Amino acid sequence: MEVFAFRAANKYLGIEGQYVHRVVDDLPIAPVPFMPPCHAGLIYFRGELFDVIDLSRFLGDKESEISETKKGCRVILLKWAHRKLALIPEEIVGMIWIETDEAGQTVETVGGDSVQIMTPDDVWSSLTERHYGPHQI
Question: Is the pTM of this model over 0.70?
Answer without folding.
Answer: yes
